UniProtKB/TrEMBL annotation:
Name the UniProt record assigns to this protein: Short-chain dehydrogenase/reductase 3
Localization in the cell: Membrane
Record membrane topology: Multi-pass membrane protein
Entry similarity comment: Belongs to the short-chain dehydrogenases/reductases (SDR) family.
InterPro entries noted in UniProt: NAD(P)-bd_dom_sf, SDR_fam
Lineage: Eukaryota, Fungi, Dikarya, Ascomycota, Pezizomycotina
Main location per the UniProt record: membrane
Keyword DNA-binding part of the UniProt annotation: no
GO-annotated cellular components: membrane
Keywords noted in UniProt: Lipid metabolism, Membrane, NADP, Oxidoreductase, Transmembrane, Transmembrane helix
Alphabetized CDD domains for the sequence: 17beta-HSDXI-like_SDR_c
Length: 341
């Protein structure tokens, strides 16, 4: 999908034709429309309201175009060359792909014919066509580079990298042990650097690639009881943003696509230590299929994006720009989400 093919939003779709009919259609047509208006709404008032709605809609549309243009590194031909010679020519890496959201994403890509390599310390529960498992401790740089060479020898240089590996455990700052903190940051942050270092150089040479980063809504709002996890997700958001900048200004590879994922709580093993408190607090928990399908769709689109789940939370990135009292109210709303069992 090119950037110019973005569909107009609902305000434009509804207000533009109505405004045209009320101002450019024949008097007979205009009269038929007016006769359905409430008595306290004149034609002039409706035209004024529709005009403002059209302006707002066009403003939103321009904003969407600019966002898509910026996210695709200011390239007019926003779509990459993925799938041009058949999806079976593409190779994807999925870290933490043996279970949960990672496994669903791997299966979704494999169903499209993409060759998928799962990097995980645990073997998947079953074999799936187009999916190859590579045992890998992503917290070990040497192991990541060793497996990267094996992948390249087996399939060739990967064109898609999905950094999905992650762990979480509900506890307070004072309860976090040094051993757990090192493990958490190694898995959730440092491993993302290692895989990018291992696979990005080939993407730069080919001027083709898509790197997906698994962040979270916790990148913006850190719940009490998940402070260390939220810190890792803020870190990988910074990694994603910095990667975009370096692709443009250091590697001369703006063609490489980048997507960051911001889900709220997802029904996977990641929330096992605090799922009971999520039920008590009645927090929204979404299905992993919702996220995995969107990731697959975005890769098939061949464009960069910043995706929020649910979509209604896409304004979450504005939280840090709110007055401090508003930020605290938002954070207070998550106080009971992650109570340790």
């Amino acid at each position: 999908m090119s950037l110019t093919s973005l569909r107009p939003n609902a305000l434009v779709t509804i207000s533009a034709p109505l405004l045209y009919l009320l101002t450019r259609a024949s008097p007979a047509v205009q009269e038929k429309i007016v006769q359905y208006l409430p008595k306290n709404v004149s034609k002039a008032k409706l035209v004024k309201a529709l005009t403002w709605a059209l302006i707002a809609g066009l403003g939103g549309q321009v904003n969407s175009w600019l966002n898509a243009w910026a996210q695709n590194n200011w390239l007019f031909s926003g779509r990459s060359k993925f799938g041009e010679n058949g999806w079976d020519k593409e190779i994807a890496i999925v870290t933490g792909g043996s279970s949960g959201m990672g496994n669903l994403t791997a299966r979704g890509l494999a169903a499209k014919g993409i060759k998928v390599c799962i990097l995980d310390i645990i073997e998947p529960s079953e074999e799936v066509e187009n999916i190859q498992y590579f045992k890998c401790d992503v917290t070990s740089r040497d192991n990541v580079f060793e497996v990267a060479e094996a992948v390249k020898s087996f399939f060739g240089p990967p064109t898609i990298l999905i950094n999905n590996a992650g762990i979480a455990h509900a506890h307070t700052i004072l309860e976090a042990t040094p051993e757990y903190l090192h493990k958490l940051f190694d898995v959730n942050v440092i491993s993302y650097f290692y895989t990018i270092q291992a696979f990005l150089p080939d993407m730069i040479k080919a001027k083709k690639g898509h790197i997906v980063t698994m962040a979270s809504m916790a990148s913006y709002v850190g719940p009490a009881g998940l402070v260390d996890y939220a810190a890792t997700k803020s870190a990988v958001l910074s990694l994603h943003e910095g990667l975009i900048s370096e692709l443009k200004h250091r590697y001369n590879a703006p063609e490489i696509k980048t997507t960051v994922i911001h889900p709220i709580y997802v029904k996977t093993a990641l929330i096992d230590t605090f799922k009971s408190s999520l039920r008590t607090s009645k927090s929204l928990v979404i299905r992993p299929e919702t996220v995995s399908k969107a990731i697959v769709k975005q890769i098939l689109h061949g464009t960069s994006a910043q995706l929020y789940f649910p979509k209604s939370l896409r304004t979450g990135s504005l939280v840090r720009g709110f007055p401090h009292w508003v930020q605290e109210i938002v954070r207070d709303g998550t106080k009971n989400d992650a109570l340790s069992a």
